[in-house]
Amino acid sequence: MKKLTIYAIIVLLMASCANWNSQQKGTAIGAAGGAAVGAAVSKGSIWGVLAGAAIGGTAGNLIGKKMDQQAKELQQAIPTAEVKRVNEGINVTFDASLVFNINSSNLSDSYKEDLLNAIPVFQKYPDTNILIEGHTDDTGSDEFNMQLSEKRAKAVSAFLAQNGVDRSRLVEKWYGETQPKYPNDSEENRIKNRRVEMAIFANEDMKEDAKTGDL
Fold first, then answer.
1. Which regions in the chain score pLDDT beneath 50?
2. Residues β-bridged to residue 98
3. Strands 89-93 and 196-202
4. Distance CA 195, CA 197 (A)
5. Kindly report the CA angle at 75 between 180 and 47, in degrees rounded to 5?
6. Euclidean distance between CA atoms 192 and 179, whole angstroms
């Protein structure tokens, strides 16, 4: 019953925020209880992580402004990627057709180029953490796909670290085929599900600066 009540609050809140910008939504959701919102979504999903990381209020509003700018710069640096502002963070999904071949964790040259273009933006905002999630389509066994998604997440993380992103900012998670972004009912959709997504969110230094008004 408690989960249902929280879910109902979130639905009503999101509906009332339909015409708000990302910064305003982040402030409102955080003020209503970032912890409660985070607990109601799928643990480990990008949306859940970003919702759970929100602190809300005036500090959350300041972080939102900072994230608006970083998201704008990321979209300019990697125009083929989908860059979304979510609460007080950013969700980046790279063009799946550029990323991985079937049953492979090798980064394509096109994907490496996109990552290299994004790295200067990541370096410009050192007070953020970067969560890297690996996913697969439903081709292959569950066990194989789980291992493959781990390799994909770690391949991206290693490439970023090797090219100048502080390793302490990077966190990897993997989910095999358990979190498809599209139904695995066509080859086109399976390509989209062979992906790595990123969540960019404030670290403790940025949160502290936001709380003291120094951000």
1. 1-44
2. none
3. antiparallel
4. 6
5. 35
6. 12
Phi, psi of 90 (to 5 degrees): -135, 135
By the 8 A CB rule, do 26 and 64 touch?
A: yes
Q: Which two tokens stand for residue 20?
A: 């708000």
- Predicted pLDDT of residue 32: 39
Q: Which two tokens stand for residue 97?
A: 């057709």
The helix or strand, by DSSP H or E, that contains position 133, with its residue range, turns out to be strand 128-134
pLDDT of residue 96: 67
Provide the token pair at 124: 């410009």
Query: 84 has which bridge partners?
Result: 91
| Confidence (pTM) | 0.77
Specify the 3-state DSSP secondary structure of 132: strand
Q: Which amino acid is at 53?
A: A
Give the whole-angstrom CA distance, residue 101 versus residue 190: 11
Q: Where are the alpha helices (DSSP H) in the chain?
A: 2-16, 22-31, 34-40, 46-53, 57-77, 109-124, 142-162, 187-193, 204-211
Check residue 181 and give its pLDDT: 86
Q: Do residues 135 and 93 lie in contact, with contact meaning Cβ atoms separated by under 8 Å?
A: no
Q: Contact 92/82 with Cβ under 8 angstroms?
A: yes
**Residue 18: other Cβ atoms inside 10 A:** 7
